[in-house]
TrEMBL record:
Residues 1-23 form the signal peptide. This is Plant basic secretory protein (BSP) family protein. It comes from Tagetes erecta. It comes from the Eukaryota. Keywords: Signal. The keyword Signal applies. Pfam families: BSP. The keyword Repressor does not apply.
Length: 232
């Protein structure tokens, strides 16, 4: 009987190291720690909180939004890096770049006058983390759709900003951001798991026919149905 616990222990060790191989590391740097935005970041948000939410959002994106429980379906990233930094582009709040990097504006943090900075920050973090892990049809997917998926994650994570688009809002399906997020929410009602399945199809390519493949209806028909459902 003696060998049995030994085998159990060996298997446990193996599975723990297996998990470790696929873990993503999160790096957060406050590049402007002495500026008003950098100081406010440290006082009201902080590096530990950011790292924790990068992990939580990564798990949520894989398990709930993209339903990629098999690691071979996931976009393989060893790490995601986030920088609190000033922006060249005035007015921008955050941006994704270089495959696994996020820059967050210290100017936005310093000038934000709304109620709950941490809540707003967290929603934007879910948005940017989605860009790190979403498939983009190898660059062929429309930007408006990719931004819509990122806002969809924010919405489903329960971090929509005050004034977030209501169901039925929008002028075009690929308008982007909140309106496309609401449209994607509607597509999920038509076909359960739509956003996850669309993302899966966008791994190597993009075609607008993916909407019809998944729902039986062309995207323009879906858009008309969406508007008809909410606008009376
Ligand atoms: C993002 O911020 C880092 C650190 O401040 C900087 O080195 C990098 O150039 C910025 N990236 C972009 C695309 O602005
Ligand atoms: Zn975005």
């Amino acid at each position: 009987m003696a060998p049995k616990p030994f085998i159990g222990y060996a298997l446990l060790t193996f599975s723990l190291s297996f998990v470790k191989i696929f873990a993503v590391d999160y790096y957060v740097t406050n590049d402007v720690a002495d500026t008003p935005g950098g100081i406010r970041f440290t006082n009201e948000i902080g590096i530990p909180y950011t790292k924790e939410k990068m992990g939580t959002s990564n798990d949520f994106i894989w398990s709930t939004i993209f339903q990629q429980n098999d690691p071979s379906d996931q976009k393989p990233l060893d790490s995601v890096e986030l920088y609190i930094t000033t922006f060249v582009d005035e007015g921008a709040i955050a941006m994704s770049w270089g495959n696994n990097k996020i820059n967050f504006s210290s100017v936005f943090i310093s000038e934000y006058t709304g109620d709950d900075l941490k809540y707003i920050y967290t929603g934007i973090l879910y948005h940017e983390m989605t860009h790190a892990f979403q498939w983009d049809g190898e660059g062929r997917a429309p930007i408006g759709l990719l931004e819509g998926v990122a806002e969809y994650t924010k919405l489903k994570a329960n971090y929509p900003q005050p004034g977030f688009a209501k169901p039925g809002e929008g002028d075009r399906w690929d308008q982007g951001y909140e309106c496309t997020a609401r449209f994607l929410e509607y597509c999920d009602e038509v076909s359960a798991g739509f956003v996850a399945n669309l993302n899966k199809k966008m791994r190597f390519d993009y075609n607008v026919d993916y909407f019809e493949d998944l729902t039986g209806k062309p995207v323009d028909q879906l858009w008309n149905d969406y508007k008809a459902k909410y606008v009376h």
